[in-house]
Amino acid sequence: xxxxxxxxxxxxxxxxxxxxxxxxxxxxxxxxxxxxxxxxxxxxxxxxxxxxxxxxxxxxxxxxxxxxxxxxxxxxxxxxxxxxxxxxxxxxxxxxxxxxxxxxxxxxxxxxxxxxxxxxxxxxxxxxxxxxxxxxxxxxxxxxxxxxxxxxxxxxxxxxxxxxxxxxxxxxxxxxxxxxxxxxxxxxxxxxxxxxxxxxxxxxxxxxxxxxxxxxxxxxxxxxxxxxxxxxxxxxxxxxxxxxxxxxxxxxxxxxxxxxxxxxxxxxxxxxxxxxxxxxxxxxxxxxxxxxxxxxxxxxxxxxxxxxxxxxxxxxxxxxxxxxxxxxxxxxxxxxxxxxxxxxxxxxxxxxxxxxxxxxxxxxxxxxxxxxxxxxxxxxxxxxxxxxxxxxxxxxxxxxxxxxxxxxxxxxxxxxxxxxxxxxxxxxx
Amino acid sequence: xxxxxxxxxxxxxxxxxxxxxxxxxxxxxxxxxxxxxxxxxxxxxxxxxxxxxxxxxxxxxxxxxxxxxxxxxxxxxxxxxxxxxxxxxxxxxxxxxxxxxxxxxxxxxxxxxxxxxxxxxxxxxxxxxxxxxxxxxxxxxxxxxxxxxxxxxxxxxxxxxxxxxxxxxxxxxxxxxxxx
Lengths: 429, 180
What we know:
- The structure holds two protein chains of two kinds.
- Chain A is α/β, with parallel strands linked by helices.
- Chain A contains 14 helices and 18 strands.
- Chain A has helices spanning 5-14, 38-46, 72-87, 102-108, 140-149, 174-185, 207-215, 231-238, 298-301, 304-314, 332-340, 343-349, 400-409, 415-420; strands spanning 23-27, 30-34, 59-62, 92-93, 117-120, 134-137, 151-155, 159-165, 194-198, 224-227, 258-263, 270-272, 280-282, 293-296, 324-327, 353-354, 375-378, 394-397.
- Chain A has a five-stranded parallel sheet.
- In chain A, strand 3 (59-62), helix 3 and strand 4 form a beta-alpha-beta unit.
- Chain B is of the alpha/beta class.
- Chain B has a single domain (4-178), classed as Aconitase, domain 4 (Alpha-Beta Barrel), CATH 3.20.19.10.
- Chain B is 37% helix and 18% strand.
- Chain B has helices spanning 4-10, 28-31, 42-46, 56-60, 81-88, 101-109, 118-123, 155-163, 166-179, and strands spanning 14-21, 66-69, 93-96, 113-116, 129-133, 138-141, 146-149.
- In chain B, helix 5 links the parallel strand 2 (66-69) and strand 3.
- The longest helix of chain B has 14 residues, at 166-179.
- The N and C termini of chain B lie far apart (36 Å).
- The chains are: A alpha/beta, B alpha/beta.
- The interface between A and B is large, with 50 and 39 residues.
């Protein structure tokens, strides 16, 4: 029976060959929760009266959404995680100061291996598919169940293949590719399915770009996003962990519900307009839209590569005086690396805010909420009504280069405009 | 009134309530905005249910009412607070053309009944009086005098809802393992 990579990983963890649309129970290699989703899971887990978790090495708890504690209630939620981790001796609990945004942190810490089955009580858990793992978002009850039993139930998804070929245009990155895909198929275009990303273009894409692509699979309604393990991924992993792993590939002739092919030379810089990630336009075709805030960060685009791109545009420039630019390195290691490379100095000289790792403004939590009538260009992953603040505010999703350019010009702008414009002479109040 | 999970158990109940009709892509930020996620208390969450989409919801929702929507209901975040808020506000069932997958599993895991029915979801209007007969797999729009057949919920799911959700199901399995 020919199988896709997703079917193979699920089969391996179910202990038998499974087919798409089957309901199965499978063992998990890692179960993840954060300060918003884990408290509910912990409450349900404790009601079972068990003395220990199924495996204290396989649970990861990261307080990243409303931390450093944004208010008293959030402080309590973070405390629940802390106390639980101490009580049940959870090895992978990452305290504030040692943590990062979960979906940037886990791969960085070598916790994700190809062929793994990873569940997370956070919708962007699909990020880890970039390393050839099956990774999917679940709820708090699923997390409680997994912490107790080491298992999770699934419906085996059918797969949709996305083939990218051709050379990338200047500044076009993983973010633009996935935004383009979502604009083509819609926010439920891959509902319940596995999105399998492949094609020669991937040789050009860094791990950061690949994480970005898989991160937003959920925005098309997918169960998971996945990229076959290759030399680039191998090089990334070698530096992170000495552990052994098993690599799976889709069989030649495996069934795909649909196959899409994209010539990336026809894909230009994308901006997702309010209020859906699928509502994309080409940045260069957008008229003047003034903005109030820019956010560069998140599990989607907060990695060192993203910060380097932003710094290359901001160097020697100033943020527009009517704009707040908030830059959030996704982990402490990334923050430190950015510091060592001189990026933080570039950001602060440009009059940007640099924050400790947190999800913060992405979900309208803290560290940059929008008032009524305000607009933000953001490298995050969602722009629903009220996502980053007041229901009368707007969020436009872009890649880091467009975000940085927009911060300088005070409106949605392409990096090509920065190269042309005379902003060096600008003298802000 | 019996809880929906008791319906499966006894194989009999009728759910009756008014419809709260919405469109495509009702997302988790609308169902329960992130600014309220610093609590897991479902009674607290219920006070803010649907706040960024429909302010009248919390004021007028009654025990037993039904949410009816079109495509991709519950898209966005994995926050279980979304189905919890809906259930705690009195909603007995959510009917939609299609559901977002994480919302679907969360709702079932907490024992909130979901029905996928594109035709019924399209035809039902806001405030129509709805009757759901789980024994006969039938939805009736009492306001418009129309009926629809629905597919039975998969057996695996029925057991879970009948147990009161995933954790009750697990508890009863753990108890039986201890007893062995």
